[in-house]
Amino acid sequence: MKKLISIVSSCYNEEENIIELYNRVKAQMEQFSDKYDYEQILVDNCSTDNTAIILKDLAQKDKRVKVIINSRNFGHIRSPFYAIINGSGDAVIYMASDLQDPPELIPQFIEKWEQGYKYAFGQKTKSEENIFIKTLRNTFYFIINRIADDNTEMLKNCTGFGLYDKSIIDILKTVDDTYPYARGLIRDIGFEVALIPFTQPKRKKGKTKNNFYTLYDNAMIGIVKHSKVPLRLMTFLGFILSALSMIVAFIYLLYKLTHWYTFDAGMAPIVIGLFFFSSVQLFFLGILGEYIGAVYTRVDKKPIIVEKERINF
Fold it and tell me: Model pTM greater than 0.85?
């Protein structure tokens, strides 16, 4: 009996890319028709264009295409993770539906899997993305790899595009988190990773769904779920600033006592100190809020996804 490979993707308003994605995946998997069966699972995140219609048409023509339509848009974190854990194959390959994850890397993923790797990821070595976004992304990797707990190093420029062995998928299915950070979970699990470098092509059709907010959300969820350093930094800086404030206050007191009639501090130090400490407090409150939000999401116990329709399963 042939082993099964699941190719999974999450979609949102990708009507211009779905057909090409299907054809390119099919062309790659036909190379392995003598060794593997495959299924292509597409999770539609409540698209507002014709994506769902196109997916249903593909599923009707090809029973290897399996479709899940969400009851609403569940965001850029939950829907891809749900797509991954719904793969039933001996290996699961995740790729974005915008064709910026080239299906032509599938043979290299399978080759690494056959060599015994539990997962193989595509690693972007070049990209035509905006220089500002690239700088933010590199800054995030620099920070997270220096503050992550338990020596957990995030894989730089790996977005989740790659192959996961069934044993990894079984572990991911046990994760009790409604807002999971898959890239961090993979590093928590361990095992050696095979990295396959590739140049990310520029999106040719449709509009990107990534923006500053989605990148910020990814960055913050990665930090708060995998590091306690920001919380401890708040404590350390609190001690340091408190000590500094006491020293400055004592110096001012001594100077005033020794120069009672000539020393006049004025309003500038008061205003500067007020704004400085207020900004520090607000920054720390923001960090604390991110951790509280992550805890609330974890204990809220909402489902990762609510399905509206499921086809060909």
Answer: no
